[in-house]
Design a protein that fits this description.
The structure is a homodimer of 267-residue chains.
Chain A: E1 6-10, H1 16-25, E2 31-35, H2 47-63, E3 68-71, H3 74-79, H4 81-88, E4 93-94, H5 97-106, E5 112-117, H6 119-124, H7 126-132, E6 139-144, H8 148-153, H9 160-169, H10 171-175, E7 180-184, H11 192-198, E8 204-207, H12 209-222, E9 235-239, H13 243-253, E10 263-264
Parallel strand pairs in A: 1-2, 1-3, 2-9, 3-4, 5-6, 5-7, 7-8, 9-10
Helix pairs in contact in A: 1-12, 2-4, 5-7, 5-12, 9-11
């Protein structure tokens, strides 16, 4: 059981930002990644479509015999977590929202939280609901940034257009009294340079990659699922479309050292 | 046979620009429209994925017993026309590329043709191949505009961001000696105000909606398929996701007079 891989999935290649953190936190673990690039983006779609697609990705991971599932996508975490857990049965499922909110709340001085994500994530009000559980004094300012995912999937992680889109999306949060900005989409860390450039300086940025990887480590440890084997772990990366461009963009994100190939599969 | 509907499909709601022209040209015809909004955009995906999706849309139309199929999508016309025709069997299939090129060539003084479309359309070189058949003296300057479809599907048909994206994409064509610009994507007419604003004034703009509708009329006439019935035609609009937002955007495009409802279906 301990030697089985961890399944990580996302609508596209954004979830690789989470994989990067998992590799750092849990270098002995085997990972199977699946990005549904044939149907990306998810965050602009209806909830029932997102749920249907999410269940298909979960079934893929069940067939791959994973020991845990990481939903490396805020949209699916916000909209389809119940369906994913129901499908996964006894396999533990980790979302990216819970660990990230906990991390943001732990930061000194957090009081007003800016949250940027997809339209589906914003519409779900999952962040508002979870943050409210930590206390009534927290305020949330949320903005949907529907073009950020297409920009990342296009490889436009910097440049004039991306900067202007970012400036436009972040205007409200920049003008607010938010003290932390949550990148509530696993694609957004790929835009972090641009976001930092146009963001008010006093705003701290948090993304879900590192908090989720740490949370996963704790869970595997608690459930005696950590891989103790000394043999080298296996990393498998699958997408449903565009393996070559996916690799190119992933490689930029991994500073030219992407740790595997990307294969195309059909769901 | 004459009373059967015409099937029109697209990856999203862009194909409604073609429907608008068909309604004008052929007001007696019943139309079934299908936009695959659960998987839009197509133009950023691999050819085999586009072919697979196109065949599914074609089968939907066959089941609806249509008398003709209009592929209201340049990406599918450029990449998957053979597969669509093979699937459609005896049902005549019209693409949007052939009529549009003929229209552009007919314009007085056309010599250098600017073509903007999706990445898949650009990559197929379908426009270059077809234009070359009209004579060796024609020159084609083609640019892929992968963010235009997400912008339209988001309803961002005007505004600062769209204008800046358009300016960036059209820079090369603006600087060239092109005398006509073909909007080689059925989504792009929805951006025509912005495109006109940033485009060099001397460039004429052609889109595929009107040429395709006229071509369809000729074909139906030639094959004795025109509806001669005087009863009012039926218009059915289907999408695979986001029926409400699809309706909103469609309604803007039809100046508040969208001629029907939009229903959601599963493929």
């Amino acid at each position: 059981m301990r030697n089985l891989p961890i399944g990580v999935f996302d609508s596209g290649i954004g979830g690789l930002t989470v994989v990067k953190s998992i590799l750092k936190e849990l270098p002995k673990e085997s990972i199977i990644y699946l990005g549904d690039t044939a149907r990306v983006p998810y965050g602009t779609r209806d909830n029932d479509t997102i749920k249907k697609f999410s269940v298909e990705l979960t079934k893929f991971m069940i067939n791959k015999n994973v020991k845990a599932i990481v939903v490396a996508c805020n949209t699916m975490s916000a909209v389809a977590l119940d369906e994913i857990r129901r499908t996964a049965g006894k396999i533990p499922v980790i979302d990216v929202i819970t660990p990230t909110i906990e991390e943001a709340i732990r930061l000194k001085g957090t009081s007003v939280l800016g949250v940027i994500g997809t339209r589906a994530t914003a519409h779900s009000r999952a962040f508002q609901a979870q943050i409210a559980r930590h206390g009534k004094h927290y305020k949330v300012i949320q903005t949907a940034c529907p073009l950020f995912v297409p920009l990342v999937e296009e490889g436009l992680v910097n440049g004039k257009v991306t900067e202007l889109v970012a400036k436009d999306y972040l205007e409200e949060i920049n003008k607010s009294n938010a003290d932390v900005l949550i990148l509530a989409c696993t694609h957004y860390p790929m835009l972090s340079k641009v976001i930092r450039k146009v963001l008010r300086r006093t705003l701290k940025i948090i993304d879900c990659a590192s908090p989720t990887a740490k949370y996963l480590k704790e869970l595997l440890n608690d459930q005696n699922l950590l891989n103790l084997n000394k043999s080298s772990p296996e990393l498998k990366f699958y997408v449903t479309d565009n393996p070559d461009r996916s690799f190119e963009i992933a490689n930029i994100f991994f500073d030219g050292k992407f740790p595997g190939k990307i294969e195309k599969i059909s769901l």
